[in-house]
Amino acid sequence: MDRTGAYQPEDDQLDFISFAAHELRGPVTVIRGYLDVLTQELADDGSSEHQALLSRLTVSANRLSTYISNILNASRYDRRHLKLHLRERALVDIYRSIGDDMALRASTQNRVLDVQLPADLPTVAADMSSLSEVFANLIDNALKYSNEGGTVTVSATADGNYVRVNVIDRGIGMPSNVVSNLFHKFYRSHRSRETVAGTGIGLYICKAIVESHGGQIEVKSEDGRGSTFSFTVPIYAAVAEKLAASDNSNEELLRSAGGSWIKNHAKYRG
Ligand code: ADP
User: Fold this and answer.
1) Would you tell me the crossing angle of helices 48-78 and 11-45 to the nearest 10 degrees?
2) Looking at ligand 1, which residue's alpha carbon is closest to its atom 8?
3) I want to staple 252 with a disulfide (CB 3.0 to 4.6 A). Which of 41, 47, 122, 246 is the partner?
């Protein structure tokens, strides 16, 4: 039974949620800062057991921080405020900003993370922190929904005026009725609600961020065999003129795409 509707809070609940998320962000940033300091200090003279415990703490603190920014982004998106500044970026640099954290998440969960991002890809028009969040959410899912010892592959290719990124896992996969609900806010499949921790907001916000860049996100999945999530981001050279005309804001880019983003927006609200 599809109970997606039961997971949609009313507007005033969302206000409270985003207020709470905002308040949590400060202390979590402080915790992550001190964890960094401790990790550096223990790197030389801590026991390997202490270092392993600290790694686990760091992974959890970083995940908490991702959840918080997802919630904040989702509430902004619901109010149609996902206004981004897109700049020329190399995909490898965007990934590098979260690469260590992803490697740590993979190793603490006993998964293999295989990242193959060619250095000679064209540069893209991106908001660094938002797009790194998309990487983090998709990789986090691919790791979570994989089996012990499984491999998650991240790859990218040029595709017309876009760069296409693929996050591939050979994990539990999904039946087609789950796939059709996937990008709805707070949707989680029955199976994952019972077995894996999560909020059901990650893919909703991935879609919001990717579409706010003028790209698209899609999934192919086979139940029991794994999933491939892929998203596109415009090549910088293809949109440079439009960005220059609007002070690098994404608004002109989305307007000139025929307003389809604005039109489709309502469809993704819940
Ligand atoms: P969360 O992972 O916090 O539940 P998401 O919005 O990221 O929230 O994902 C929504 C649901 O989509 C998950 O609960 C899970 O059922 C399914 N899902 C997402 N990614 C995968 C994946 N790589 N393999 C299998 N199922 C997935």
Assistant:
1) 160
2) 200
3) 246
Which ligand 1 atom is the nearest neighbour of the CA of 204?
Answer: 6
Q: What is the mean pLDDT of each run of 10 residues along the chain (270 residues)?
A: 50 69 85 91 85 89 85 74 87 93 91 96 94 93 95 97 98 90 80 73 89 94 96 96 89 70 40
* Consecutive H or E run containing 54: helix 48-78
The model's pTM is: 0.80
Burial class (CB in 10 A: 0-12, 13-18, 19+), 195: exposed
Please give the structure tokens belonging to residue 150.
Answer: 């499984």
Give residue 111's pLDDT: 97
Among candidate residues 72, 75, 85, 74, the one with its CA nearest the CA of residue 26:
72
Q: Whose CA is nearest to atom 20 of ligand 1?
A: 141
